[in-house]
Write a structure and sequence with these properties.
The chain has 5 helices and 9 strands. By secondary structure, it is α+β, with helices and mostly antiparallel strands. It has a single domain, classed as Cyclic Phosphodiesterase, Chain: A, CATH 3.90.1140. The protein has a 5-stranded antiparallel sheet. A hairpin with a 2-residue loop joins strand 7 and strand 8. The radius of gyration is 16 Å and the shape is globular.
Length: 183
Amino acid sequence: MNDRVRPGRRAVVLAIPPPVSASIDEIRMRWDPVMCGRIGAHITLIHDLIDDGRGDERIAAAAAATPPCSVRLTDTAHWGQSAYGVYLHVDDMAGGVMSLHSQLASLEDPRWARVAFRPHVTVVHSRTTDPAVAAEAWAVLEEFHAGWEVRLTTVDVIELGSRGWHTVDCVELGGNGSVRSEE
């Protein structure tokens, strides 16, 4: 298990709102309480945001150009093997998540370029879960089907601090592109 933390790192996510976030967190607290304590349930758009000098503008424009959308969280899967992480598939019915990602992909740190974007919600993270626990989680969750529909209404820029991730900017989807700073 590798638990590297790099304070100051920023990411762009779609937060999963209640009540679905509470259902996801029940799973996360059982199998990965460390990561659950650091970050809320979310769909990652950009893992490691690079500052191109216009990132805030580009995030606001992409959010303004994308209407609020619904996704369905479905089956569980894992990245190659359960020790690499267990997640829920995201059925991006209207294509809003993929559209946002494609508009923002150039803001991603280049080291992520080798990883094809797949909308997902992580429930067991490789950095904070022992491989034996991840295998046990997979044995329990392998046949799990969430079937949860989620309405996504904001894009959040989050930053890793000493106590976990926190929102620094929040932009409404389909809005006027204005940013609500949370700092």
